[in-house]
Each structure stands twice: as C-alpha cells, then as structure tokens.
Design a protein that fits this description.
Elements: H1 22-33, H2 41-51, H3 55-66, H4 68-81, H5 85-105, E1 110-114, H6 121-128, E2 133-138, H7 140-152, E3 160-164, H8 172-177, E4 187-192, H9 201-214, E5 216-225, E6 227-228, E7 231-232, H10 240-247, H11 258-267, E8 270-275, E9 290-297
Parallel strand pairs: 1-2, 1-4, 2-3, 4-5
Antiparallel strand pairs: 5-9, 6-7, 8-9
Helix pairs in contact: 1-2, 1-3, 1-5, 3-4
C-alpha cells in the first residue's frame, strides 16, 4: 500500500502493507470464488492485480488462495471466525449486480460507488453499459492502487472516475461535484456495499440525506448490518471477531433492526423498495446478518 497509516476506516488512508484489511479479504474471496464461478473471472483479475500491490499481506493472501493447503487453512479460519462469509460475499455481489443492471436499464446515466474498495463492479458496469459514467469514491491510497491495477490489465477505464475521499470527514457531494464529469441532474445509481456499518448513524444519515436531496431521481443499493444483542454483527460471528476488527481500525459502528430500516431510510429521504431475503429458499444468504436493500428517493414518483 502507498501509505503506512494504520487507519482503515472507509475513505481514509490505506492501512500498513503488512496488515490485512476487510477490503483485502473480500478481494481474496473474489479470486477464490472465480475458481468455481467463471462469471467472476474478470472481477477476479482486478482483485488479484490489486492484492499484488497490497504488500506482504496481499501476497500472503494470494499464496493461500492459489494453493490447496492455503485454501484449506482459509476454510478453517472462516469456520473459526464467521462460517459462510465467503459465500455471503458472493451472494451480496450477485444481488447488487442484478439490481445495478436493472437500474441502468431503467435509465440511470451515471453510477456512484461509495467505498468501492478493490471491487470490479464499476469496471464491469462501464463495459456492459456503453453510455454509463461511473464514479468510485474511496480512500486515496485505494484509489491510486486500483488505478495502477487497471493500467496493468490494460483496461478501458475512460468512463471510470476514481475520487479519493475520507468518508468519515469529507463531504461526499462536494467531492463528486468537484469532478467535471459528474452531473447531479442526471438519473444516478448509488451503491454503498459494505460501508455504512463503519460509519456512525449520524454520519450515515448525513451521507444518504445529501444524496437523496441533491441528486435527480437517485436509486440506492446498499447494505446495513443487522443488530444482534444491541450491536451490529453477523448472526454466526464468533466473539473474537469484534476485537480483531477493532484492532484493524474497522469496527462496526452502526446497525439497524429489519423493522426499523424503512423508517430510518425515510428519515434520510429514501423510500425502501426491496430487501433481499436472507432466507430465500432459491438463493439463501450463507451467512446472514447484513441487510441488502434497494431504495428510491422519496421525492421521486413511486414505481408502478
């Protein structure tokens, strides 16, 4: 990583290269899932190129993913920490991609990916949607690293606009409006995957309220942690995981009960449209505990 700052909160400077962040774990899971799911091959290419630039921590993860013994160790660690997490990541990304494609088909002209990490959704959207402009917001170090990875892959990133931002402190709309390619009057898809839980409730509300108020007919695809025993966490999460996240500077700060999610979104100016059911018999979430939802600006006309 370009920086040695230990903080790894959303949108902050990148963590020390010897540490392993949750963004790196998600990237490693993507590389591993691509061994079984060919449709993830392109995303895995980008995830691998990013991990190769993540210092010793990234190289260790790739070694583990690329060797049978390493994969067995990762499976054992997952069972000890949060059973089903790798499958949860795949389930989450699959649902988000479907909703994102639907939003583009319904007229979204630009997409804003908040806390995009090393994910390849933005890159894929620009390839599937020839007129779509994508703006990715994340920590400055992550943005620089991902740009280099795309350059290595010789990817066409002409419609991909990376923006370095500290989501804990900076104004998201100011950062977007500083990019001459961004137009708040255009229909916009906003994606906040695995990021709101790292913000305080007040900060998360401020972020979503600004998007709802200042963008034209926005659609939001996002995730929020479920509250368990009064704190945000996965249902099958082992007790020691909380301390590990604290030491990495990535504690879960906010969560929401299912029945309160619609009201919470309404306070931010959004109307809840759909919630991915973790217990769906046709496509269950392997590790429940994170609500994945689709929302529309409350000021926009409701869908027919």
């Amino acid at each position: 990583m370009p920086s040695t700052d230990q903080s790894s909160s959303p949108g902050s400077v990148s963590p020390h290269p010897k540490n392993v962040s949750t963004a790196m774990l998600v990237a490693a899971a993507t590389v591993r899932q691509a061994r079984e799911h060919a449709e993830l091959a392109q995303q895995a290419q980008l995830a691998r190129a990013c991990l190769e630039r993540c210092g010793a921590g990234g190289r260790r993860l790739l070694w583990l993913v690329d060797h049978a013994l390493g994969r067995a160790c990762l499976s054992a660690l997952e069972a000890l920490a949060l059973p089903g997490l790798r499958g949860h990541y795949a389930w989450r990304k699959r649902c988000i991609a479907q909703w994102a494609d639907r939003a583009c088909a319904d007229g979204a002209a630009q997409a804003v990916l908040i806390g995009s990490g090393y994910d390849g959704l933005g890159w894929q959207l620009t390839q599937r949607q020839p007129a779509l402009r994508v703006f990715e917001l994340d920590r400055a170090g992550t943005v620089a690293l991902k740009r280099e990875a795309l350059r290595q892959l010789r990817a066409d990133a002409s419609r991909l606009h990376p923006i370095g931002i500290d989501l804990q402190r900076d104004d998201t709309l100011d950062a977007l409006l500083s990019d001459p390619g961004f137009d708040p009057a255009l229909p916009t898809l906003c994606v906040a995957e695995g990021v709101l839980m790292y913000l305080s409730s007040t900060r998360a509300q401020r972020l979503l309220r600004a998007l709802a108020q200042q963008l034209s007919s926005p659609v939001l695809v996002a995730t929020a942690m479920e509250l368990r025993d009064g704190r945000p966490r996965f249902r099958r999460e082992r007790p020691w995981v909380r301390g590990w996240l604290q030491r990495r500077g990535e504690p879960f700060r906010w969560g929401c009960e299912r029945d309160a999610l619609g009201e919470w979104l309404a306070e931010c100016g959004w109307r809840l449209r759909a919630l991915a059911e973790p217990g769906d018999p046709d496509d269950p979430d392997p590790s429940p505990g994170e609500w994945l939802f689709l929302a529309q600006s409350a000021a926009a006309s409701p869908p027919r």
